[in-house]
Structures are given as C-alpha cells and as structure tokens.
C-alpha cells in the first residue's frame, strides 16, 4: 500500500515562546508561522504574548507591534496599509485576507497567522508569488489598440466603462488563487482566479482590439477549464470581487463566440 508521509524537514515544529514583559492584563496569544531557509531548520510556530491595550485594531498592527517591540526577525510583506497594494495578503484564523484590513477582534481565540496556503515560502509569512506573476505576464495585461491613434483619446461609453466594474478593482493579492483547490493541485498550468479575472478585464474592455486572440489564448483544458466552480475564490476576495463569475463569463463567451 502506498504510504504518503510529509518529508521530515517539512513538518512544522513548536517554536519559541515570547512571554509578555509589559505586565498587561489584556494579553492575546499570537501564533505565527516561521521559516528561515538559511538555517536548514524545520518551519516552526512561534507564540507571542501581545499587549492588546496598546495595539490598534488590525492584524497588521499586531505584526508591526511584534516586529517593533518583541522580535525584529519576523518577516512579512506590507506597503500601503490601506488595502490597496495587496502585499500583506496572508492566512489569518484559517482565512485568507489582507492583514491591514482584517480586524483582529473578528478572529476568535488565539490569533493564528500563516503565509498564503500552497505557495512555496520565501521566509516566514512571505509566499513565493513568482509563478503567479509569470502567469499574469502571460495574459499580457495591457490594452492592445494598435489601429487607434496614440495621440487622441479612445472613446469609451459609460455603459462600456461599467463593464469593467468588479474587475479593475483587483489588487492581485492572490487571496483567491491560493484558496482555490484547483490552483493548489495544478498551479503550474491552471491560471487560477486572480489571473483569469485579469484576462477577463482585458477581454471585455470595449477599446481592446485583440479580444478573440485573448479568448483563444485562455481556451485551454488546463489554463481555464480546471475551474470547477467551487467558489472558494469569491469567498476569499478581500475586495468583494467575484472571480468565479468572471471565469464563468469567459467560458460562456467561448461557447458563443467563433474563435
Ligand atoms: S470557482 Fe474556480 S477558480 Fe474559484 S475556487 Fe473554484 S475552481 Fe477555483
Ligand atoms: S480577485 Fe480579489 S482576491 Fe483575487 S487577486 Fe484580485 S483582489 Fe485579490
Ligand atoms: S499593506 Fe497594502 S493591502 Fe495591506
């Protein structure tokens, strides 16, 4: 019988325990995934006792507090702190989201923080998004309107502009793709919800002149049809977007367009 075991060096061990030194009566335990490839050691979960009386409301504030006051070795991405750049995406309390917009009060019990699921980890909470960005590049995310003058405005009606609503707001945080079981198992070939939503955004742009070529490019058993409409992606999106619907729309266009 086949035995499926995790390699010994991938097992997550219990890590260090950082006891509160402030004497606060309002302590929260924060369990954080840690891994440093330069040490050759297994990943571990470090636990920090954090004084919540002096901590603002978001999970990113908790991480900043840990880094600034308890353990400067903790690594994570963040930039805008306003839900705009997408760099602080991680898994908090078992759910993908943006650390800078997720209130820690909404997560019950200990606060468990992991990198986005099913990515290779670069270090601690930093997932490796190289593959996802290569896939993003592959859909050529820019307007192709070669026949139009480059010096004058390309007209778009209000109705056509409205077709981009629900797509242009995507910040490429990868919360959706990393919550998609199809992307977990076939992430090297299946484009996943984040990139397919971007593909959709250019396909439906009224100014785009290579709509058919774009459709042809994604019309592939592995790139597109690995989506089985499980909808994890839509549930995970911190911007309230619906990538599953965009994927269904692409499939519908392919079924009704002669490409
Ligand atoms: S709807 Fe498609 S893209 Fe979204 S989680 Fe399901 S399989 Fe993945
Ligand atoms: S669709 Fe939502 S979850 Fe997916 S990358 Fe865009 S903003 Fe992030
Ligand atoms: S830091 Fe930019 S989205 Fe969170």
Report the CATH topology name of the largest domain: Fumarate Reductase Iron-sulfur Protein, Chain B, domain 2
Strand order, biggest sheet? 1-3-2-6-4-5
Would you identify the CATH H-level superfamily of the largest domain?
Answer: Alpha-helical ferredoxin
Kindly estimate the percentage of residues that lie in beta strands according to DSSP.
15-25%
**Number of beta-strand segments:** 8
Q: Would you list the SSEs in sequence order as H and E?
A: EEEHEEEEEHHHHHHH
The end-to-end span amounts to 47 Å
Number of alpha- plus pi-helical segments: 8
Uncertain residue segments = none
Task: Give the CATH architecture of the largest domain.
Answer: Orthogonal Bundle
Radius of gyration: 21 Å
Hetero groups in this structure are:
iron/sulfur cluster, FE2/S2 (inorganic) cluster
Principal-axes shape call: globular
Largest sheet: 6 strands, mixed
Q: Whole-number average pLDDT?
A: 95
In the CATH scheme, the class of the largest domain would be Mainly Alpha
Total domains: 2
- Percent of residues in helices comes to 25-40%
């Amino acid at each position: 019988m086949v035995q499926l075991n995790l390699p010994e060096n991938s097992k997550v061990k219990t890590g260090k325990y950082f006891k509160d030194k402030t004497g606060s009566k309002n302590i929260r335990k924060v369990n954080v995934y840690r891994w440093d490839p330069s040490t050759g050691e297994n990943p571990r979960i470090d636990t920090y006792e954090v004084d919540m009386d002096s901590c603002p409301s978001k999970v990113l504030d908790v991480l900043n507090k840990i880094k600034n006051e308890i353990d400067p070795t903790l690594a994570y991405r963040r930039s805008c702190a306003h839900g705009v750049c997408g760099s602080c995406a991680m898994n908090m309390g078992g759910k993908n989201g943006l650390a800078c917009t997720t209130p820690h009060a909404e997560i019950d019990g200990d606060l468990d923080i992991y990198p986005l699921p099913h990515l290779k980890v670069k270090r601690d909470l930093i997932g490796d998004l190289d593959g996802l960005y290569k896939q993003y590049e592959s859909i050529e995310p820019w307007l192709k309107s070669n026949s139009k003058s480059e010096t004058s405005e390309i007209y778009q009606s209000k109705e056509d502009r409205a077709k981009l609503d629900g797509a242009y707001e995507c910040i490429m945080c990868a919360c959706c793709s990393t919550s998609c079981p199809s992307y977990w198992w076939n992430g090297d070939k299946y484009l996943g919800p984040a990139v397919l939503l971007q593909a959709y955004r250019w396909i439906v742009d009224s100014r785009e002149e290579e709509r058919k070529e774009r459709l042809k490019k994604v019309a592939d058993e592995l790139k597109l049809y690995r989506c089985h409409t499980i909808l994890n992606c839509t549930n995970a999106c911190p911007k309230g977007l619906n990538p599953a619907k965009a994927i269904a729309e692409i499939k519908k266009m392919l079924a009704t367009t002669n490409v």
